[in-house]
Amino acid sequence: MRKIILYPNPILRTKTEAVIKGDERVEREIKELREVLESCENGAGLAATQIGLKSRFFGVKDLKTKKIRIYVNPKIIKTFGKKVYLKLKDKEGRETDFLEGCLSFPNLFGTVRRFLKIEVSFWGQESLVLEGFEAVVFQHELDHLDGVLFVDHIKRDKGKLYRFMGEKKEEVSNF
Fold it and tell me: Is 141 a catalytic residue?
């Protein structure tokens, strides 16, 4: 089974190539990506580049059912509103910023502004509207296919990046 590639491997900065036809190679690559994502306890999505492939597809795991949807040649065709931080409720019911993470950056999480509602298209689907967490994961994985990493957004927008060591969280100031 393929392994997840970790930053700073340069393949994570690779812009992927569109899938032209669904042949045996593409089917094999999708199967490999699906197997790796299924084995990730905390992974919500995985892009082809993260396992060393240059094809334009990624998988997103439904966190409730654990089913994985594969998006081949994905595009955002419309955005709604402006980019904001996704807000979640903590155990006490207080609103808090969602901390986005990445399987290629173990133990690092940060605040990333994303559209919370997007309309997307991909191979076999002309249009689909995604909202909230699903929209955030789609944008994160689509960025991977263009060689863009979540830390790029954090740096550009002056967001916050944290390193988690067990229960301990420390802010990373120089990245």
Answer: yes
